[in-house]
Amino acid sequence: MRLLIIGALEGQLSQASKMAMDGGAKVAHAATIEIALASLRSGKGADLLLVDVMVDIPALIAALDAERIAIPVVACGTETNAAAAVNAIRAGAKEYIPLPPDAELIAAVIAAVARESSDFLYRDPAMAKVVKLADQIAGSDASVLITGESGTGKEIMAKYLHARSKRANRPFISINCAAIPEHLLESELFGHEKGAFTGAVARRVGKFEEANGGTLLLDEISEMDFRLQAKLLRAIQERVIDRVGGTKPVPVNIRILATSNRELATEVKEGRFREDLLFRLNVVNLKLPPLRDRPGDIVALSDHFVARYSAANGLSQRILSQAAREELLRAPWQGNVRELENTLHRAVLLSSGDVIEPDAIRMPDGTGLSDAVASHSLASQAAAAADAVARSMVGRTVADVERDLIIDTLGHCLGNRTHAANILGISIRTLRNKLNQYADEGVDIPAPGSDFGLAPNKRYSAA
Predict the structure, then answer these.
(1) Are the CB atoms for 284 and 145 separated by under 8 Å?
(2) Start and end of every Sigma-54 factor interaction domain (predicted)?
(3) Fewest beta carbons within 10 Å, which of 77, 143, 379, 449?
(4) pLDDT (tens digit, 9 = 90+) per residue, 111-140?
């Protein structure tokens, strides 16, 4: 995590920031906006800007936008600077931290804004297989595609690979392709030259150059615009990039990691992702299983999160009851590890004692975990029934399916031809022609005003 402090707050914020990140934060300082921008352009990037509210934050954010630099801004100031704090938020700052700084508050804000996490915990054999493969290929320079549902820990796996690679002591740079607007992403990746577009007041180094010698993570790469994918393919193949507005290729030496929560083979078939780019990225595929398929990890992660948030909130150490553990194991966890973490954070806060019981484990809307399990069960049953209906049509002709649909609809309408035609979206004349055809073929036709189900063997005319 790289933090850049802007303004006269270095003494107050530097130590608190390092404490907040357990010493894992790299903190730099810039006295003015101009110095900060020069640092960012030169490739000394940052994951988060902590800015004194007395600095002209609207001007800073306007300058970042003009130069296509996408970095979250957090304003910091004394509690008496209420008006300045409001102006900073209105200008585009993500959060406001009052001073003197509190390390726990800074940690929470950093986690929320920058989504930084370094925890990697697993116990389940399904995850152990993936980690074993990761260990085998971590030391190579091969591109790796990390796939899985949202919240399974794809970015954490990318950091795990980097930490065990030959490039571990070099930069690890991450860029979220889904979070940056299309018109900013190219400059964010490749940088730009002075005068390349309105607002480009100086040369700016992009993420590829920032990561030179290290690892570049392209997070949610499936969200990248199709046209930009061609430029990315060249950069990966040739190991050179072209800054926006540049005339001279810039060589880079990086390892590429990419993540996606979509099935990229399907994206290729539907024309949203380049097949040649997929081949370049997918030298090795690490597919992270969803949490519901890793029950051993649910228990281990639950204990970990309970311990973490008990300490973070200054509470005595909480533990999960056996009943609570069993309920956690039954839950579907559609949001995977991220959903589990948020749920247990709430449970720690809602628990009335040191032992967390099932009634403290609630969803964001206040419903209990058992309600979520029941809802998921009903949804699964409905999906299974729909799938069974779809499968029952396989191998049948369109004419057969159409006939059964018409007869069933007519029976549902108690033989009323007009109502059936309206439901089917066809004219009454077409319906009658179809019914006459079926009658000639020996098919039973519901009579008007009758319940067809009571006389399944009786034949009627189409009129």
Answers:
(1) yes
(2) 120-349
(3) 449
(4) 665 444 445 788 899 999 999 999 999 999
Cα separation, 233 vs 240, whole angstroms: 10
Neighbouring C-beta atoms of residue 20, cutoff 10 Å: 24
Q: Which tens digits make up the pLDDT trace of 241-265?
A: 988 888 889 999 999 999 999 999 9
Backbone angles phi, psi at 5, to 5 degrees: -95, 125
pLDDT for 255 equals 96
pLDDT at 1 over 80: no
So what's the pLDDT on residue 117?
Answer: 43
Instruction: Give me 102's structure tokens.
Output: 């509190």
Token pair belonging to 347 = 């449970």
| Other residues' Cβ atoms within 10 Å of the Cβ of residue 168 | 14
Mean of the pLDDT values across residues 317-336? 92
Cα angle, residue 455 at apex, residues 451 and 456 outer, rounded to 5°: 110
Residue 222 DSSP one-character state: G
Report the distance separating Cα 63 and Cα 201, nearest Å. Answer: 10
- Measured CA distances, 5 to 32, 37, 43, 72, 264 (Å): 10, 12, 16, 12, 39
Which pLDDT belongs to residue 441? 87
> Is 109 exposed, middle or buried (CB count within 10 Å of its CB: 0-12, 13-18, 19+)?
buried
Give 444-460 as a DSSP string: --PPTTS-GGG-TT---
Encode 111-127: b = buried (16+ Cβ within 10 Å), e = exposed.
Answer: eebbebeeeeebebeeb
| Tokens coding 45 | 């990037």
Over residues 295-325, the pLDDT tens digits come to 999 999 999 999 988 988 888 999 999 999 9
Long-range contacts of 358-365 (CB under 8 A, 24+ apart): 358/321, 358/323, 358/324, 358/327, 360/324, 361/324, 361/327, 361/328
Tokens standing for residue 217: 């993570």
Task: Determine if the pTM surpasses 0.90.
Answer: no
Residue with tokens 């995590």: 1
Is residue 406 within 8 Å of 424, Cβ to Cβ?
Answer: yes
pLDDT tens per residue, range 9-32: 766 666 655 555 555 567 888 889
Q: How far apart are CA 216 and CA 211, in angstroms?
A: 6
Strands (E), 272-378: 284-287, 319-320, 355-356
Give the 3-state secondary structure of residue 303: helix
